[in-house]
Amino acid sequence: MLKHIIALGVILTAIVVYSSFFVVREDQYAVLFRLGEITRVDFEPGLHLKTPFVNNVVHFDRRILSLDSTPERFITSEKKDVTVDSVVKWRINDVETYYTATRGDELRASQALGQIIKDRMRDEFNKRTLKDVVSDARSTMIVNLTAKANEAAASLGIVVIDVRIKRIELPDQVTESVFERMRSERKRVASELRSQGKESAERLQAEADREVQVLLAVADQEAQEERGKGDAEAAAIFASAYSKDAEFYDFLRRQEVYREGLGSGGDVMVLGRDSPMLKDLGKSER
């Protein structure tokens, strides 16, 4: 009987000792309760003491959490519908406020935060055109949205780290209109490029034609110069020959004229009685 009492005492002692300690990991918050009331929340990571059967400890996640909400429809300033798929990065920054507002229920916290993001996002989309929400101006909208969401989320003990828009879908008629504008824009750009190409081709053709004309003119000038040099050399040769035997030179020149004048022999030529050609022909008969 004594052994059983001692064993039971050892077990109870072990339970009491075990219940007197709790561990807080680096990725956790710890809230210490005394009979259901919060008594302490500022625990550092490590091993801590508590009063068994009087205190209890609840742990909460210290890490950044994600809220991937379902796509929502919003209306832009020009009354066009868009469907937005977004994700929110958040974490607990005031664990006491978080527990008081949500009873430590992460699902409840996510639902409350999702409604905050939805309301602020609706306000931001209502103030902007469709072009603004799909262009670079969207980054300004996200900054404003995050700041306003943090103002409301402070009552939940939550801080919003980032809001990311994964996809914006347009209604079918708007999508077709956007695609049609894109096609028209591409056609306009293509037409401009073709026009520029044609202009460049005509300019290159004109430059090539001009260069050809210049080359032909230069070649013709050089040919004229060469012909002039040849004529000058021929004249010099003729002059030299004439100076050596003028009578023989005149005779050769007349013979050349006769060949050109009589041609193939079928022509008729009328000569005067005192024609030098008639005299030359007479000399040849003698």
Task: Tell me about this structure.
The chain has about 290 residues and is α+β, with helices and mostly antiparallel strands. Among the domains are: about 1-60, no CATH class; about 65-170, 2-Layer Sandwich (Tetrahydropterin Synthase, Chain A). The protein is about 60% helix and about 20% strand. It is built from 8 helices and 9 strands. The chain has helices at about 1-20, 95-100, 105-125, 130-135, 140-155, 170-245, 245-260, 275-285; strands at about 20-25, 30-35, 35-40, 45-50, 55-60, 65-70, 70-75, 80-90, 160-170. The strands form 3 sheets. Strands 6, 7, 8 and 9 form a 4-stranded antiparallel β-sheet that branches. A hairpin with a 5-residue loop joins strand 7 and strand 8 (about 80-90). It is rod-shaped, with a radius of gyration of 55 Å. About 10% of the residues are buried.
Keywords for this entry:
Tetrahydropterin Synthase, Chain A; rod-shaped; alpha+beta; 8 helices; 4-stranded antiparallel sheet; 286 residues; 3-stranded antiparallel sheet
Question: Order of helices and strands, N to C?
Answer: HEEEEEEEEHHHHEHHH
Uncertain segments: none
Looking at CATH, the homologous superfamily of the domain at 65-170 is Band 7 domain
Euclidean distance between termini CA atoms: 184 Å
Q: In CATH terms, what is the architecture of the domain at 65-170? A: 2-Layer Sandwich
Shape: rod-shaped
The top level CATH class name of the domain at 65-170: Alpha Beta
Q: Averaged pLDDT, please?
A: 81
